[in-house]
Amino acid sequence: MYRTHTCGELRRTDVGSKVTLAGWVQRVRRMGGMNFIDLRDRYGITQLRADDSTDPAVAAVVARLGREFVIRAEGIVEERESKNAKIPTGDIELKITALEVLNESVTPPFTIEDESDGGEDLRARYRYLDLRRNPLKNALMLRHKIAQEVRNYLSDNGFLEIETPYLIKSTPEGARDFVVPSRMNPGQFYALPQSPQQQKQLLMVAGFDRYFQIVRCFRDEDLRADRQPEFTQIDCEMSFVEQEDVLNVFEGMMARLFKSVHGLDIKRPIPRITWYEAMDNYGSDKPDIRFEMKLHEVTSLVQGCGFTVFDSAGYVGAITVPGAAVYTRKQLDELTEWVKRPQVGAKGLVYLRVQEDGSLKSSVDKFYTPEQLKAVADAAGASAGDLVLILCGARRKTQTQLGVLRIEMGNRLGLRHPLEFAPLWVVDFPLLEWDDETQRFYAMHHPFTAPKPEHMDWFSSNKKEDLERVCANAYDFVLNGTELGGGSIRIHDASMQRRMFEVLGISNEDAEAKFGFMINAFRYGAPPHGGIAFGFDRVCALFGGVETIRDYIAFPKNNTGRDVMLDAPAPIDDTQLDELCLRTVEKA
């Protein structure tokens, strides 16, 4: 056999045993007549030793070893003279009696160490080498552990794992689809699913009352640290449930993950806030509640005093940054330029310092009396040593800008520790979003989300102001400022689904062409149902203490959606294009 033990298995109790190990050469240390080899596999590192008493044939093999050679070593386990407390096998070493090179390696393009000298692009090109490093290996092991815990929890709670197809029909009201041409049906295309939304609802119609799937999904959208063109969801659906039932089940799932991965007992029930409370208090529908620094509206306190910028604003809001009154003018100028960046979009920043002696200093001193400034500081909850930062403009837009500024100040003050966890549910989202450019409503989640039962009168109205008041029977699970999961109670009634399509401006003909199978299925006794989908890659990354999901995906794409290891996407030849009845054109 190639090995009797792994490289992370041997201990002092194995001293005297004859064993065989196999793996990669991490490094070779040649010290005159003494040679040490660190042998690595997925389980750990074991030190091998060859000295003057070693068989000359073995010594000859040792002499030609290089980094990343694949070898098999036989020998006797001995206690090390100089022990290494940093590794589990640090008390022992293997005195080599036989050595075989299974495969040589050219010099790798970067060092296979925890802290590598390879840049991100280089490591992506040689991803199969990067995956040998402990940080990525541990990330994929954590991913496996979380997947197993999810499967076990859901199976224990009566869920069935059912696969749904990857080749489906393209439907509107989402991100851009990835499409696949059909050779057997020229001129027609499949779409890769953005999620199994329709299929899982049809499984509820079919009577499978608890479904789940850890499933690949695809969206052709702009990328960022926590977004990939292909990603994985923990996709779930339940029949005969109300919102409370769904939240309780999946609070339980997340509690189990916190316990199994980090040994934490999270407090239940997990806090819940409405979408409106989230926006008003945090400027975000996925707030990070590990730190306070809430938004405070001060509109009525600052208008009518001659400062035109505030007087003409629909909303003036403030956040208080604790202990930041020591910020210099240079730092405040830098912060002002920061909020003007396109990622934030503010036109400027007003500040108010509360000095240690309680006196006030503001960038708009000439427009306000000390008493008026104190009223603003009090409304923002500021005390001695604090800094109040103020933005203004349209209400929701300004709240969003303040939310981004709040996160930035949390980062600067070190208030967002990656292994401190603060989960919450955000509920009661608006059902619809109005778009001024197209003069129509869009579904805030998707067109199968049910309105709150108590808002049905507004949902039935044709008045824009009534429809804007309708809340969705929807919920998001948020952790540390990241939306990890989202779902809703679904529409299960054909007439209500038709009404939703009508509100969204989808004609009966279009609805029948694109969603006819769903509408038809609802006519055959669809049960009340609802579900949720968690971003599995995001769950893994946050539980690992990072925000980027790439390290938790074996072979990710870069920021432009390219796989630089495979050099994909790539052109296909004319023969394939002919088979698919396709022609390519140059983009204007």
User: Class by helix and strand content?
Assistant: alpha+beta
CATH top level label of the largest domain? Alpha Beta
End-to-end separation: 61 Å
Count, helices? 18
* Average pLDDT number: 95
Low-confidence stretches: none
CATH-assigned fold name of the largest domain: BirA Bifunctional Protein, domain 2
Shape: globular
Specify Rg, calculated over alpha carbons: 30 Å
What is the helix content?
A: 25-40%
- The CATH architecture category of the largest domain equals 2-Layer Sandwich
Summed up, the domain count is 4
The major beta sheet can be summarized as: 8 strands, mixed
The main sheet orders its strands as: 6-9-10-22-21-20-17-11
Strand content: 15-25%
Structure summary, number of beta strands: 22
CATH fourth-tier homologous superfamily of the largest domain: Bira Bifunctional Protein, Domain 2
Can you put this structure into words, describing what you see?
The protein is an alpha+beta fold. It folds into four domains: 12-103, Nucleic acid-binding proteins (OB fold (Dihydrolipoamide Acetyltransferase, E2P)); 135-267 and 533-578, BirA Bifunctional Protein, domain 2 (2-Layer Sandwich), CATH 3.30.930.10; 291-412, 2-Layer Sandwich (Gyrase A, domain 2); 423-521, no CATH class. It has helices spanning 56-63, 120-125, 127-130, 134-156, 197-205, 243-262, 275-282, 299-302, 308-311, 329-339, 370-379, 395-412, 456-460, 464-467, 494-503, 508-522, 536-543, 574-579, and strands at residues 18-31, 34-41, 44-50, 70-79, 92-103, 160-161, 179-181, 189-191, 210-218, 230-239, 272-274, 296-297, 315-321, 350-354, 360-362, 387-393, 423-427, 432-435, 440-443, 474-479, 482-489, 529-535. An eight-stranded mixed beta sheet has the order 6-9-10-22-21-20-17-11, with helices on both faces. A five-stranded mixed beta barrel has the order 1-2-3-5-4. Strands 12-13-16-14-15 form a five-stranded antiparallel beta sheet. Helix 4 (134-156) crosses helix 17 (536-543) and helix 15 (494-503) packs antiparallel against helix 16. The mean pLDDT is 95.
